[in-house]
Amino acid sequence: MTSAFLTRQQLAERMGTTPGVASAILAEKGVLPVNFGRGRGRGVRWYAQAVDMAMRQMHDEAQVKNPPKKIQPPRVSAYDPFAGKTARQIYEELTLGHPVQ
Question: Domain residues of the chain, as ranges?
Answer without folding.
Answer: 5-65
